[in-house]
Specification:
The complex is a heterodimer of chains A (about 200) and B (about 180).
Chain A (H helix, E strand, L loop, with lengths): L3 H19 L35 E8 L2 E2 L3 E4 L7 E5 L4 E2 L4 E9 L14 E7 L6 E2 L7 E4 L12 E2 L8 E2 L18 E3 L4
Chain B lengths: L1 H22 L7 H17 L8 H25 L9 H31 L1 H20 L4 H18 L3 H16 L2
Helix pairs in contact in B: 1-2, 1-4, 2-4, 3-6, 3-7, 4-5, 4-7, 5-6, 6-7
Classes of the chains: A mainly beta (about 200), B mainly alpha (about 180).
């Protein structure tokens, strides 16, 4: 027999889930005070930008078994309001090597896309396995990239991607990751998804 | 009684407006604006003579409530493999969040709840508190937050009704906000 208290809690949980599903881009903080981001850290600060420490890079490693990374790899730059982060699920990368390393590094913007201007840093996402090539598996579709905009202004920036420096920029379909500028998708990433 | 509810609602709207003015373009992230808003609500609550009895059962119910309202985002975090946020800067932010979230609860589920309950009954008190709770976040985050904050507002009001004290929803609200730091 289900008690009335249990029924009330179940109803509360159902109500929250319905509210969650009905809300586009919900985040955890139900109230009040958003987490303040520190000013955006530029590799090459534009005129008038606040003086900040340099932007940070981040790396993560996983051993390889049966040619696949056995651990999920989570990398996040160290700014308050990380400017870039990446998660690669277990089995998302294939290599004949013994380890795979994921690197996220900020770069100065160059090779502006036609019809636009790069606002902030370019971020290079690099996958390295010493002496071996790294390729993506179907599981890599679960990988997640978060990038932060330089400001909270709306509409937000367009995300572009290129597989290597010489390639043309391509638009990426993204969604906003938070109610505020914190963790919002943005920036124009320069990605090199495989390497040796 | 009707005048008391109207006065509390007007003072609440004024507090929200003051927060928006102080916070400017970055109101959602302004700790100062949050503290000003929280101070306004605390003054209103004290002026209303609202009591906030704290009991073990209320705290326990509040903790269960926090788990309930955090479940969707926790599941999303797991399913999307999103990394958990670090603790740098957490202490200062948390100190402000505890004040603001508690102030919101003792006002909405304390002073305002009592006044509306006396006038129109507990269901109306839960509903009015939930609507105010949802609307206060619109200037900060936009209209899209209404469904979720309305639902959570009803849950917080239900906790107030079930435990007889705003302490329970305050624990839920503070708990959910603090967990929210890591799940973003």
């Amino acid at each position: 027999m289900v008690s009335s208290v249990s029924r009330r809690w179940a109803a509360a949980a159902a109500l929250v889930v319905v509210g969650w599903l009905a809300t586009p881009d919900p985040i955890a903080v139900y109230d009040g005070v958003g987490v303040p981001d520190e000013p955006y850290r530029y590799v090459m600060p534009p005129t008038g930008a606040k003086k900040t420490p340099p932007p940070t890079a981040a790396t993560a490693q996983s051993p390889v078994e049966r040619d696949l990374n056995i651990n999920g790899m989570s990398v996040q730059t160290a700014e308050q309001g990380a400017q870039a982060s990446l998660f690669v699920p277990p089995g998302g990368l294939r290599s004949a090597g013994t380890t795979i390393e994921v690197k996220v590094a900020p770069l100065a913007p160059r090779d502006e896309p036609s019809g636009g201007r790069i606002d902030g840093n370019v971020y290079a996402f690099t996958l390295v396995s010493p002496g071996k090539q790294v390729t993506l598996t179907a599981q890599a579709a679960l990988a997640t990239v978060y990038l932060r905009a330089t400001t909270a202004a709306q509409p937000g920036p367009v995300m572009l991607y290129r597989a290597a420096s010489a390639r043309p920029w391509k638009p990426l379909k993204t969604s906003r990751g938070a109610r505020t500028s914190t963790s919002r998708f943005s920036r124009v990433p320069d990605s090199t998804p495989s390497g040796s | 009684m009707r005048l008391r509810v109207a006065a509390l609602l007007a003072a609440f709207a004024l507090s929200v407006w003051l927060r928006v003015v102080v916070g400017g373009d970055v109101v959602a992230q302004s700790l100062t604006a949050g503290l000003v808003f929280g101070a306004c609500l605390l003054v209103l609550t004290v002026a209303s003579g609202t009591r906030v009895p704290v009991s073990r059962n209320a705290v326990l119910a509040g903790l269960v409530g926090a788990a309930v309202v955090c479940t969707p985002v926790g599941l999303q975090q797991l399913l999307t493999f999103r990394p958990v946020h670090g603790t740098e800067g957490f202490a200062r932010w948390a100190a402000v969040v505890v004040v603001v979230a508690t102030a919101e609860e003792v006002f909405l589920r304390g002073a305002l709840y009592d006044a509306v309950e006396d006038l129109a009954g507990a269901p109306a008190a839960v509903g009015v508190g939930a609507v105010c709770f949802a609307l206060l976040h619109v200037p900060l985050y936009g209209w899209h937050v209404l469904p979720l904050d309305l639902a959570v507002g009803v849950v917080l009001g239900g906790l107030r009704q079930g435990t007889g004290t705003p302490a329970a929803p305050a624990v839920t609200h503070v708990g959910a906000d603090l967990v929210g730091w890591f799940l973003r």
